[in-house]
Amino acid sequence: MPDDMKKPLFSETLGGELKKGWDDTNRLESRIESFGVLKHRTSAFIEWAHEEGVYYATKAQYRIFKRLTDCGQYLIFRNYQESKVSRLIGACSCKQHLLCAFCASRRGVRMSMAYKERVEAFKAEAEPHQLLFLTFTIQNGPNLSKRFYHLKNSMQKLTQRRNFERAGRGTHKSEFTKLSGGVFAYEFKRGAGSGEWHPHIHMLALIPAGQRIDAQALKDEWLQITGDSKVVNIQICTNDQAYLEVFAYALKFSEMTHADRWFAFNELKGERLISSFGCLRSVDVPDLVEDDILATDEPFVDVLYRWLPTRGYSNPLTLPQSTQSAA
Hints:
By secondary structure, this protein is α+β, with helices and mostly antiparallel strands. The chain is about 35% helix and about 20% strand. It has 8 helices and 10 strands. The chain has helices at about 10-15, 30-50, 60-70, 100-125, 145-165, 215-225, 240-245, 260-270; strands spanning about 75-80, 85-90, 130-135, 180-190, 195-210, 230-235, 275-280, 300-310, 310-315, 315-320. The strands form 2 sheets. Strands 1, 2, 8, 9 and 10 form a 5-stranded antiparallel beta sheet that branches. The chain has a 5-stranded antiparallel beta sheet with strand order 6-3-5-4-7, with helices on both faces. Helix 4 (about 100-125) packs across helix 7. The longest helix is centred in the middle third of the chain and has 25 residues, at about 100-125.
């Protein structure tokens, strides 16, 4: 399968899961199609690993790619007969979200839902707040690891300034002090012109409605911290797209070339690529690919989809003894 095959669209693989009616049985076919696109992306990566001799190079690598191969081989959906809702209740998952597009998508959905719920709860409980979408970048460079740690250390300094000033111990004034909290993800890709690594951060942040970030002051502060970049972008969120940009960070690994994807995975293995502060800290996100099961006694039917490499996901097969009747 070619390296430049159809990429998974965020609107299909994450966006639909945040909208009302995301689990409507009428949407089930489109969900299966989206999962098929993601599975094809991972299958193409596995084919590359075979061709380049990466798959069997070491026992550890064999285990990684064997888990990738097995991931998403089946999906089990529970179709609720009265509410006309379909929930994913079973799937084999490798939980290697930086390599597996399917697991990355499911992780992104879970995180988007959890943080959206926290944001809405905070806005309901506290004084009026606006949700901002911010982007921070640093100068491109040939060494991914060095660029990552430079970006990470720079953001740590920025958030520390906020924390110290809010605690009354600050020695630097910071525009970040105005923020009640935020969550952000590190992303990486090759620069279009230079071919060097282009690291950046996408962030969701809450700010009291009466406050505003002085964009120029924040840019100057970012340049003072990084020493090489004053590129900061600030937007007011008007829809759910910002959640997708932040929490699709792992899914975007599947948009790299296969070689870059494998290289970045090994360079950044074990690193936390998402962090939070303030009122958005300590959000509990279950590490599950399945949807939550409805708390209902209504009848349901469980159906199985199998992955067929040449055809995609099969027609649904009703599982024996899976039909429940209402009491």
